[in-house]
Design brief:
It comes from Paraoerskovia marina. The protein is of the alpha/beta class. The chain folds into three domains: 3-46 and 92-154 and 280-376, FAD/NAD(P)-binding domain (3-Layer(bba) Sandwich); 164-277, FAD/NAD(P)-binding domain, CATH 3.50.50.60; 387-492, Enolase-like, domain 1 (2-Layer Sandwich), CATH 3.30.390. 30% of the residues lie in helices and 25% in strands. It is built from 15 helices and 21 strands. The strands form five sheets. Strands 1, 2, 3, 4, 5, 6 and 16 form a seven-stranded mixed beta sheet that branches. The chain has a five-stranded antiparallel beta sheet with strand order 17-18-21-20-19, with helices on both faces. The chain has a four-stranded parallel beta sheet with strand order 10-9-8-14. The N and C termini lie far apart (73 Å). The mean pLDDT is 91.
Length: 494
């Protein structure tokens, strides 16, 4: 079996958007970088998550928005084949040639295969099913300075009897399906479950969503309630507070989910079942055990991305592989921070932001304190259901659980001048959570059409710790829905 050994300054395990960003930022200052990928360069978000799911969701949202406008005539029905074809265009037909070309053009080396850490600064790569590794089936990469784990996350199956053998869909199968099943059971009420229930109902499937609690449980309660109400409005059977007890795949290909709710046993049979019950960091097959590290819930890192348990200050973690990071954009931000840190510590040139970067174990400089603020306090998320849900920072409950003395105020989006212009069907809610001791926002949630486009102002307010008295002087334009900022502050008492 052929094998070869090569040295690079930095080795990044994972060529998703997070791995690509950390590699790019490190390589900009002259470091040689190898990026190891066992599947498609571009990762989960490009081919099976963010991009294809939004391609499936956008047509239904556009049709519903058009139907709500006064004076608009008949709106055409959705063309399912065209939607699936556009989804295929968005994913480049699951061909990563353009991503691989970008890596090469940026001066980095893409190594196809599965990478495992076998010793400090040493990654062993075995060839994947996609391609042999430069003619060799095995390759050893030795990093002079840093190894970065950017392996993302994987879905988990709940321990329901019969579920594993029923060959359920996961998010990958749901976003890449060639055909729309006549009926679909969605198990799970988080982001993936809520979005895919919406998309497949739009595409014509009869959909049942079954979840143990409410929808979008990590967000403000009103958000999940609004999404559940809309799903029911478009014909989804939403079953809350249900515990799945058994799954059976029948000889004819259909599948039955049995569940208990309020002491009653019920069942639903459909053509397909989608399990959307969460994801866990993909840290179990990276070779961390060779370093004596166990990280089932994600790597523990400092503000500069250094893995706390690794001796010698050479191992970094980013993205979903790190405890607490769960979105692509947050992972990419963290990747930019870590890439700049590695470049500053080991590169030939000063990075664009100008440093300085603390040495390993030293007290973080102000910019890494900002990074910690963004990671811990001000993470953002948009759920592309109808209505959209957009949030930053803490919910009221999370803030109180953290010991803060807070006050939450809400205002209806339809009661703004901009909302009134949108028509009678326009509705939504904006909520801010104010730390009463510091008089700054620590969280905000927007629920309504295109709510995601309203989020960044709140993100700036939370990250910047802008006093609410100062926010009052940020005058919103009239007549826009963003006038809700004025109304929120007036409701608060300014």
């Amino acid at each position: 079996m052929e094998s070869q050994t090569d040295e690079f300054d930095v080795v990044v395990i994972g060529a998703g958007p997070v791995g690509e960003n950390v590699a790019d930022r490190a390589a900009r200052t002259g470091l040689s970088v190898a990026v190891v990928e066992s599947e498609l360069a571009g990762g989960e978000c490009s081919y099976w998550a963010c991009m294809p799911s939004k391609a499936l969701l956008r047509p239904g949202a556009a049709v519903e928005a058009a139907e709500s406008v006064v004076g608009v005539g008949d709106v055409p029905a959705l063309d399912v084949r065209a939607i699936l074809a556009h989804r295929d265009e968005v994913t480049h037909g699951w061909d990563d040639e353009s991503q691989a070309d970008w890596i090469a053009d940026a001066g980095m080396t893409l190594v196809r295969g599965h990478g495992r850490i076998v010793a400090p600064r040493t990654v062993h790569v075995t060839s994947s099913a996609l391609a042999e590794v430069d003619g060799a089936r095995e390759r050893t990469l030795v990093a002079r300075h840093a190894v970065v784990v950017a392996t993302g996350s994987v879905p988990v199956l709940p321990p329901v009897p019969g579920l594993e053998t029923a060959s359920p869909w996961g998010s990958r199968e749901a976003t890449s399906a060639d055909e729309v099943p006549g009926s679909l059971v969605v198990l799970g009420g988080g982001v993936v479950g809520s979005e895919m229930a919406t998309a497949y109902r739009d595409l014509g499937a009869d959909v049942t969503l079954v979840t143990r609690s409410g929808l979008l449980g990590a967000m403000e309660p009103a958000a999940g309630e609004a999404v559940a109400a809309h799903l029911r409005e478009i014909g989804v059977d939403v079953v809350l507070g249900a515990e799945a007890t058994e799954v059976v795949r029948h000889d004819d290909g259909s599948v039955t989910l049995t569940y208990q709710s309020d002491g009653t046993t019920s069942s639903v049979t459909a053509d397909q079942i989608l399990v959307a019950s969460g994801r866990v960091p993909r840290t179990g097959d990276v070779g961390l055990e060779s370093l004596g590290i166990e990280a089932p819930r994600g790597l523990d890192v400092d503000p500069t991305g250094l893995v706390q348990e690794a001796e010698g200050h050479w191992l970094y973690g980013v993205g979903d592989a790190v405890a607490g990071i769960t979105t692509t954009h947050q992972g990419k931000y963290q990747a930019r921070v870590v890439g700049d840190v590695i470049a500053a510590r080991h590169g030939d040139e000063e990075p664009a932001w100008g440093g300085p970067v603390p040495g390993p174990g030293a007290e973080p400089e102000p910019w890494t304190r900002y990074a910690s603020t963004s990671d811990v306090v001000a993470q953002t998320q948009v759920v592309f259901t109808r209505p959209q849900v957009a949030s930053v920072g803490l919910t009221e409950k999370q803030a109180r659980d953290a010991g803060m003395r807070v006050r939450a105020v809400s205002f209806a989006l339809e009661d703004t001048a901009g909302g009134y212009l949108m028509g009678a069907d326009f509705a939504g809610t904006a909520t801010i959570v104010v730390d009463e001791d510091r008089r700054v926002l620590v969280g905000a949630t927007f629920v309504g059409p295109e709510a995601g486009e309203m989020l960044h102002a709140a993100t700036v307010a939370v990250v910047g710790a802008v006093p609410v008295e100062r926010l009052w002087h940020a005058v919103p334009a009239y007549p826009t829905v963003s006038e809700v900022w004025l109304r929120l502050l007036e409701t608060y008492g300014l």
